[in-house]
Every structure is written in C-alpha cells, then in structure tokens.
Design brief:
Elements (H helix, E strand, L loop, with lengths): L7 E4 L2 H7 L7 E2 L6 H5 L4 E2 L4 E4 L2 E4 L4 H14 L1 H10 L18 H10 L2
Parallel strand pairs: 1-5, 2-3
Antiparallel strand pairs: 4-5
Amino acid sequence: MDGASTWTTSVCTGALVLGAAGLLRGKRATTHWSAIRQLEGYGAIAVDERVVTDGKIMTGAGVSAGIDMALTLLAEVAGDDHAQFVQLMTEYDPQPPFNSGSLAKAPDAIRDRALALFA
C-alpha cells in the first residue's frame, strides 16, 4: 500500500472494496456479518468485531458500527477527550429497543430468517 492516505477506512461491506483493491492483504479487518468470510478471499484476516484497526486501515462492521468507528478514529486523531465531547454533542448513547443486533444475540428464529436471505 502506498503512503497516499493518512487513514484508509470503510464501514459495512465497503471493506470488500478495500479488499478488491488489494489493501487488506494480511490485514485484520471486519465488515457486515453477511460478508465477513468474503474478506478472507481477498487475503484479509476476518475479525468479528465492531471496529478493527490494523495500521492505518480501520474497518467497521455493519452500518451502525460506523459511528463507533468514527469516534474511534476521532480519538486517534484528536484524543479521547475530543471524541467524548463529540459523542456527547451528538448524544450518541445507544440503547437499542431490542437485543438482536448481532448473530450471537439475535433469537434463533430471527437469526435463521436473516441467514436465509444470504443462503
């Protein structure tokens, strides 16, 4: 990878674009759960986490992890205090109405329904 960027980031299946561009070879990365195994086809080390940083590459899992990734990146660039300030100003205080935001947490019937979409 060249030095053209300070950070290279993606959220959700945008990681597949980074992979296709050859930027994830040998790098730890994440993406939406439905595409996580596809990362390995690009030579990435697939990690099931909301935010993954490997050098100057930072990837976020599904769409909602984009806010987590943005705050993580902001902390790297401007410090924890500033990231916490932005979190407060945006009132980012996740309290989802259901505890089914990951394959590990979703009820069996909901998980099966979602998995069937990608079978």
